[in-house]
Amino acid sequence: MEKIKSTGLVYGVEDKPDLGTTVVLGFQNVITAFGGLVAVPLIISGIAGFGVADTAYMVSAALLASGVVSIIQSKSFGPKWFRVGAGMPTIMGTDFAFVAPAASVIGAGGILGYFGGTMLGALLEIVLSYFVKPLMKFFPPVVTGSVISLMGMTLMSVAMGWAGGGFGSENFGAPLNIGIAVFVFLVIALLNHYGSRRIAPAAVLIGAIIGYVVCIPLGLVDFSQVASAEWFAFPQLFKFGVPSFKLEYALPFVSGYLVTVIETVGVMQTLGVVTETKLSDERIAAGVRADGFGSFIAPFMGSGPAATFSQNAGLIPLTRNASRTVAIMGGFIMIVMSLFPKFATLISIMPLPVLGGAGILMFGTVAAAGVQSLSRVDFNNRNMIIVASALGIGLGVSFVPDTVAQLPGILSGLFSSGISAGTIVALLLNIILKEKDETAAA
């Protein structure tokens, strides 16, 4: 990996902070991703009709699998021909791209059909990882800059939903929720800007803890869920039985894995920018391979497919911490949390406005990193069209996803995500629109 222009990281990719700092920053990584980590297993449990005990196990299994795969992705293992993991600071978790097909598969083959189908589909992503390198020539700066910007912009709706108290909640948008989000936002911004070298990287964690504590006397934290959770739970392989390996259960997940490949390439490129590291095509391919490998082994533990989380890409430039040692520690923390349901529940009941205040800064920072990347692009007519189209369609799909919901077959899956839709448009236009000598045309 080659270093590029520095923008002031406190800890680089290869830096190893002291143990105390590593634990604190690793915990910060987990907290900022926790909502995404537990949301999908809760949804899948609901689709499967699970009771409280099985639902709790699914959440613990998701944390266990996410921790294991995060370590693999961040550390990088294996021989050159089957290198798994990009060796970049990454948090992995279950992905929403697989929720829609999961509903139909679980309806036909139950939870074992879901696990078997995702395992077979994961083999497709592993195969596709070997074709990432030749595809990278289609990702010039005008495409990657658009994708990075789009990644931050599309996630902003998630952050605003958190800030309001969670879409669908009875008090969504209540002044109290907005006030908490603003308070946490300001605490993190001030700590990040004025804090010392030790305080600034942990600004998100400190802000979240302060916001959490403030919410307790306001009656926004329900500790009864913590009291009812188990103290300790052993992981179990194939708790629900042996997965059902049928092609009919795998086909619905194909579009989800194609979307995951596209998004993971975008996340890896974003990580390269925010960690000030020039990633080789082989590293990016190994990152995609880790997604596929993680999705294959996750059902062994009782979890769904694993994917590279984009939230972490926003945390890095904001906290100026790019140490992969910290991300690996985050993986170990998730594994420990999976063994102690009470501890995991204590984090999961954090009021959403607290996460919203942090999310606005994190995701906004990703969008700003994309704008910074695009500032180095020559904005001629061709590049302007590519950027405008990628952002316009990507944001449009994110704002009004029902517009593409009735597209036939695999197209519906590929364009269901604003990030994948914008990336596909940028890639296609980059191929279709040829460079031309605009001075001669003038």
From TrEMBL:
Keyword annotations from UniProtKB, A to Z: Cell membrane, Membrane, Transmembrane, Transmembrane helix, Transport
Membrane topology: Multi-pass membrane protein
GO CC annotations, alphabetized: plasma membrane
Source organism superkingdom: Bacteria
Cell compartment(s), UniProt: Cell membrane
Family of this protein: Belongs to the nucleobase:cation symporter-2 (NCS2) (TC 2.A.40) family.
Name of the featured protein: Xanthine/uracil permease
Organism of derivation: Trichococcus palustris
